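Z., the sequence and structure:
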Amino acid sequence: MGKKRLVEVQKMVASLYQDEKGVPLQLTEGQAEIFDIIYTRKYSRVHLRAHTRYGKSHTIALAVLTRIVTFPEKWAIVAPSEAKAKIIMGYIIQHIFDNEYCKRKFEIGKDESLEKIRRERNKKRINFRHTDGSYGEVFILSADTRNKLQAGDSLMGWGASNLVCDEASLIDDDIESKIFRMLGDSMDNFYLKIGNPFRRNHFYESSKDKNYFKMNIPWQQGLKEGRITQEFIEEAKNKPHFDILYNNEFPASEAIDAKGWSNLILDSEYQNALTIIEPNAWIGEKVLGLDVARGGGNFNVWTIRTANYAKILGKNQSPDLMNVAGSTVFLMRENNINPRNVFIDDVGVGSGVCDRLRELEFQINAVRAGELADDTTKYFNRRAENYWRVKAWLNSGGKLCKDDDWSELLNIKYKAHDSRGTLQIMSKEEMRRYGIESPDVSDSLSLTFDKLPYNKEIEEMQQKAQKEEFDPYKII
């Protein structure tokens, strides 16, 4: 959001709304961005995490109110309970009376009074009549998870083209799917999910979904904007759920499912790795990994990695193995990568690419992930060993070029294969049974860890040392 637009939003809100003391409301930079995203409906899908007590519910209420008094739209506020939904509605009602623009359009029921509405702030539905006779409307609904069937059924009869799902992570997946159906009456719709990341459910999945615009405001931004103090944060660190409530981190994904699988890469590890590093700051030999598509919806993926950085170079669904081989040669030459630092999946159709490159006299590395690991006491096969090296690399400071496709790493699962604790990575076949798409990007990265990068200078030094005769009188 540009500085100019930020100032415009802050001025508009200050001119329309006041706090309970009658002082014009001043939104922080983050609050102004939240307001603008909702008021302009800039993105049709929005995923928002903000630390607790940031003022997100209040800001959402201001944006929804401004929108419905300006446009004849229907807005629904859905929360895990009616009490939670009423929080946003209460703020909306509070500010109706701040200016004539809102107050004049507000429609009062037959047996109601402005003073009673202002005082109780207890309505479940409010309407605003526009000059052309059309209406803007906002209503609240409860998605009480204590009775899933009743909650789901109660949502089925409602529809709205604009939907705010408050405390979204506290709403179960099956109920959320019925909430989503409310948008079906309109092709032009808007869906905002907001909350603290208590659960790794639909709210977590949306945080990885490319169709969602993501906004994350951790406590550091709140501290900078004056929403909280350092003293308060130091105290909060000793309370439960600090990472969830203030760092906006989803619960650690070590939790083992019913079949014993756990997530290999944690959300915190993944988020910490995403960055941009310019080529002149890349360290070490360049290595290329290629995971070859096996048909269907799979992709050919080329990943380049150095000692400190990894980047997706290419991704396509070409079934032509000669074309894939040619693209590999092009990327090798364009990025000055030694063929001996190229690692290609040699299982199934990938073997055809390996064979063609060998015909062209490129000494590439053909990797069979199902073969024995270097350390068979720790790893079930090479796939498991290479993926564990990915995790270790990330934890030692390895970085990923910002790209949503890396989120595949969060779907990689592992478990103990036997009583010795030998590490096994979930196979692609098992992942499909779980409904997880093929991790082509992740596999491409893991291939680059099959062995240490080849360095011509080091090899020449080693060969020279082996040829030199040992001189016991030589002073070193």
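Confidence is low (pLDDT under 50) at residues 145-152, 469-476. The chain has two domains: 3-245, 262-454.

Let me know what you think.
H.
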